[in-house]
Structure formats: structure tokens, C-alpha cells
Here is the input.
Amino acid sequence: MTRSALSAPRLAVGRARTVVVKVGSSSLTTSAGGLDPARLDTLVDAVAGRVAAGSQVVLVSSGAIAAGLSPLGLPKRPRDLATQQAAASVGQQLLAHRYASSFARYRLTVGQVLLTSDDVVRRAHYRNAQRTFGKLLAFGVVPVVNENDTVATAEIKFGDNDRLAALVAHLVGAQALILLSDVDALYDGDPRLPGSSPVFEVPDASVLAGVGIAASSSDVGTGGMASKLTSALTATGAGIPVLLASAADAGAALATSPPDDDTCGPTVGTAFAPATRRTSARLFWLRHAATSSGSIGLDHGAVTAVLGRRKSLLPAGITHFFGDFESGDVVDLLAPTGEIVARGFVGHDAGELPGIIGRSLPELPEQLRHPVVHADDLVAVPTANGLGSVGTGSRVESASEQRSGGSQHVHS
Ligand SMILES: Nc1ncnc2c1ncn2[C@@H]1O[C@H](COP(=O)(O)OP(=O)(O)O)[C@@H](O)[C@H]1O
Ligand SMILES: N[C@@H](CCC(=O)OP(=O)(O)O)C(=O)O
Here is the structure.
């Protein structure tokens, strides 16, 4: 019997030299809520197998808060931040200890990397984290990453490890992102309902328009399926293929595809094809990680020109702006609805804008006759087709939103 060839994204995942694997809390815990050593060992078996096959693997693991519950006598995941942080503090070191002893079965060393959003938002920190990962991988260490929950505050939290995993995948130059959860694939509706069917291939984001997202079934995680889709779109939008599969199928999800055999590799789960070629670090950082210094409101025509025709943003299409940015700073570009639709490096100081917004270039003095944001300095912010506010960009903190008493300038 001849076996059929796997899809291109599956083969890309199977052939990736550097892979980021993310596992959710629900896949590491018992039904009572504590860490489940057997499930953790199953995951480690799969990661060690992939490393033995010649890949570099970065593991993004949730589970710190879940692991800290029982030592603190907490019956369920607490709602308040301070208790979550205390649980994470206790749980993270239990988790790290468990990973260290489980990987030791394969003579593999783990390195713990705890990140806050600052480590990705600030460019110098981003480079520093990149260097650290590079060194760990060169030493043959398996980096085990989590959010630094103990110090992250409500304002600076990543929100969830799905998003963190996509950012880390780009940061380490991974060729694949594997999201492991307690569900075996993406479904077109709530997987607990009988009429829902699995979606095995996502060639592009338009497929997701018909996917229904049920509220997360897990009591221990924070992400839910919506955040997994946002993560998948973040990675595919940067040129990285994604596989979403069950942690119970970790071995099959991390299977390798030999260069000369198109029939072997990850057969399980849902494969997401990359949308583009790999994005440059500069534009990826701009889209997903940059903290903006202000925001600029666009009229409908400018939104179409900038997003639809990839044109530069000219003063004529601007209705208002907030913030005290300088030329070179990052600004959010807002649709007339107020939604962030793009982000760019601004070409003017905020002080220059009141005199030029709403006017065409020929009307302006020579030194001001250039785009407010040049097309090469601009990226669209994905709003995850049909998933509304789960788009990553709208979750990035905006300095202008935080500034109390920040002024707004409106063109009339
Ligand atoms: N369309 C869907 N397809 C698959 N799973 C879905 C869908 N909608 C909601 N879910 C739920 O999302 C859950 C996974 O999210 P979550 O519990 O946060 O996982 P994790 O702890 O792995 O991050 C699954 O248990 C599943 O019930
Ligand atoms: N950083 C937290 C997990 C946050 C999170 O995203 O959880 P999950 O949705 O289970 O991946 C922890 O270790 O408990």
C-alpha cells in the first residue's frame, strides 16, 4: 500500500532544525489540578526524541501556577494577581525541578528562561534574550521558557504563553512552532459538541472565519483556543509553520520528516501554512512587540491606501493624533473605529503634525513634504480574520493610552 504525501506545512514542521514547542497547563496537570509526572515525562520523551534526531528544541511550558496550588493548599486557580504570583513562585521551581530530572533520563540539560514582556518589547532586551537562547542551544541545552509570573504585573503580562511561544519562535529563528494542548486538533466549533469536526489543514487565515471558538474548558490555563489561533497567526504571519496537536500525541507531533521521504512526519493535529516568507526582525518587532509612543487616526481613504495598496501614510489622510512622539518612534495607526490596524516608525515629530494633518503634500513647505509613515516603515497589525479583538496588536500596551493627561490633536 502506498502512503500519501504529507502537506507542505507538515513536512516543514517535520524538517525544522529549530522548533519551539509550547505546552499548556491543562496538559501537564492531573484532574485534581497538581502536576502530573507521567504527562510531563511523555512530553519530555517526545522532545528528547526530536533532539536525538538532530533538532534544537525550545520548550515553552505553562503550569507554574497549577503546580503551586496544592503546596499552598489552594483548591483552584486563584483569581487575584498576588496569589497567582505566589503560586507561580512556588510552582515554577517545582516545574523546573521536574523537567530537569525528566530530561536527565536522556542526559539532557535544561536551562530555565523566565521572560517578561519587557524582554521582548525593548529592543536591547530582545537582542539580549536572542543571544542567551543562541548560547543555550549551542551548548545543547533545552531552554524551558515561561512567563516570569512572579514579577509580571497586570499591565506588563504577556497575557498567555501561546503568544509568548510565537514571539519566542521568531526570536530564536525557529522554522516551526508546535502548540500542544488537551485537544487533538482545531475544530470548526466547540469540540465538546457532537456536530463539530476537526480542521486538519489551515492553508490561510480565511479558513478560520468559519471556526467557532468555545470558552476555554480548562480551569488551570489562561489561553483558550482563541489565543492559540492568535499565536498561530502571529507565527504564520512571520513565515513560521505551526502545528496544533494534543500533548498526548507529542511523539507523533514532533516526528521528523526525512529529506527524501514526503510521507513521514507529523500526521496528527492541525497544520497552519506560513502566510509569507520570514519577516525581518525589525518589522516583526514593530508588529508584535513594540510599545508605541503615540497613535495617529486615519480616515477611511488612508486605511485603504495603507493596508490595501501598501502606500505610505500622507498627512492628508490623518484626522487626529495622540502623544508626544519624535521622528523615528513607534506609533499605532488607528482606523476611524479606533481599532489599531497598523504600526509604524513615524517620520515627523508630534510637534510638526498640527500644521500639516489634513493637507496635501504640495501645499506644505519643502522640509515637511514627506510621508508621516513611509510604506517601508509600516506593518499591518493582524486582527485574526473573524476573531475580532483577539488580534495580537490590540493587546500590545500603548504608551499613549497609559499617559494620563496626554493631549489629543484633531484636524477640523
Ligand atoms: N474550535 C475549537 N477547537 C478546538 N478546541 C477548542 C475550540 N474552541 C474551544 N476549544 C477549547 O480550547 C481548549 C484548549 O485551551 P486551553 O484549555 O487554554 O489549553 P492550554 O492549557 O493547552 O493552553 C480545549 O480544551 C478546547 O475545549
Ligand atoms: N505562566 C502561567 C501560564 C499562563 C498560560 O498561558 O497558561 P496556558 O493557557 O495553560 O498555556 C503558568 O505557568 O502558570
In short: The first strand starts at residue 18 and ends at 23. Residues 290-410 form a domain with the Archaeosine Trna-guanine Transglycosylase; Chain: A, domain 4 fold (CATH 2.30.130.10). The chain has two domains: 8-282, 290-410. Residues 24-26, 62-66, 88, 146-147, 149, 160-161, 221-223 surround VHF (ligand 2) (CB under 6 Å).
